Amino acid sequence: MLAELRIENLAIIESLTLGFEDGLCVITGETGAGKSLIVGAIKLLLGERGGADKIRAGANEIRISARFFPTKSALEVARGMGIEEDEITIMRRITKAGRSYFWINGIPTTAENVKRIGKFLADLHGQHSHQMLLDSNLHLNILDVFGGVERERKMVETLYDEFQSKKRELDELIRRRDEVLRQRRLLQFELRELTNANLSNPDEESKLEEELSRIESAEAILEFAELLRQSVFGESMSIADIAGKIKANAEELSHISEVRNAVELIDTILAATDEIRIIADKLAEVEYDPERAEQIRKRLALLGDLQKKYGKNLKQLIEYRDKLAEQSVEELDVDEAIEKLKGELSEIRTRLEDAAAKLSLLREEAAKKLSKAVEKELAPLALENAKFEVELRRQQDESSEFRLNGVPMRLGRHGFEKAEFLISTNPGMPLRPLKDIASGGELSRIALALKVALPAWKEVGCCVFDEIDVGIGGRTALFVAEQLEKLAQDRQVIVITHLHQIARRAKCHIVVEKYQMQGETFVSARMLSSDEREKELSRMLAIE
Hints:
Elements: E1 2-10, E2 13-19, E3 24-28, H1 35-45, E4 61-68, H2 72-80, E5 88-95, E6 100-104, E7 107-109, H3 111-118, E8 123-125, H4 139-147, H5 150-196, H6 204-216, H7 218-233, H8 239-250, H9 257-284, H10 290-310, H11 314-326, H12 335-378, E9 387-394, E10 403-404, E11 407-408, E12 417-424, E13 432-433, H13 440-453, E14 462-466, H14 474-487, E15 492-496, H15 500-503, E16 508-517, E17 520-527, H16 530-543
Parallel strand pairs: 3-15, 3-16, 8-14, 14-15
Antiparallel strand pairs: 1-2, 1-4, 4-5, 5-6, 6-7, 9-12, 10-11, 12-13, 16-17
């Protein structure tokens, strides 16, 4: 429930503090006194956008705070946000620059967090104002509570979670098996590729390059060999002939030391010519072999590709091949485990499908009953021609492994269906989603009818109704008052009203008044005593 609300600098409100009690609370006052500003403050507090344009003249910012005694659902959300206290205080500050700041129990937070918990703290109903009722994502929750199928729903959720968990486990096991098989195939391929490459000599590449160079230079080598022969052993004026003649002539002068030295050098030249002849003969053996050259080019290309592919030189490739030949890839015999998981998954799938189908039948029955129950409550609320229907929506999906009545249907954590509340408030008008209803007064009465029809639904501890009495009076007003009083038996209900039929049934009564002082307008609000309340009820009766 809402225990206390503080408002500063909102429109004509300078400073206002309101305390509330549980049960039915009413807020009354003259038209234009500022009653709806209180509801507006709660909306801003719980995350509604805007507010900078509502800052009181002369002030710098709006400050709003509220203290709540939360319901179990609100506490669960709070615990999920790390809030351990049993009371929840929300504060919002809005500056002239349009910036907003939120706090929950004194800790800065985001608007999203406030909205998350706010929908379980206060349910607001007025002109285009709502928290829970128009959220179609919650309609299925409402239906399940009304139908008393929470146990069946919990079963579906549990089986669904178990199914998804087993499915993830199976997918991971298959992924691991496929990864090992992929790795094994890859290593086997690499070993086969490197073995077929016949790698044995780390220097093979340099030797092949030298051989290829010799073949490609064969013509030049042969010409050079012939030049050596002619120069050294040619028929005329060869180096050997010249050296021989010089040596023969020098023998007559061998007694002269300088001549002997020259002869020794000549002998060296002659010895060198023998070496040159051997080299020339070897060079002359070179043949131009284009076929061998092409073989070498292909081999060098293969060696180059392997080194580039593996990022290793020839020596490292040979070592890597030998290592591959020795090592064994991880053996992962999971086929039996996979088949076992598939069996478990099939069994869970069958149980889940059966449980979801059973839940669908129960929901169909509950939807009919809820539709009738809400229509029954709408009749005395000046909505006797209204039609209300709970529509169950399912999505056919050919890829789904689940069947409902033999039809492949998409299955979510909460079952096969989603729920949507549909309403038609006038004869001949089609049923439309509740969120499309334009009238705030109608929406408030529909909310009241729905909540009265759902006495067990207590996810929100405080229901606030604004404009619920628009366009009604007399006997209808009595029915509305009775319904509000009935609703307030197990939760806090705050109503802004002009009808004394509603106000006189309230447990607590707050009056809002507007006054001027020194040229400025102010708003005050106070809880009425018994005598003051009688006077206010008399005023309201006189107005009516």
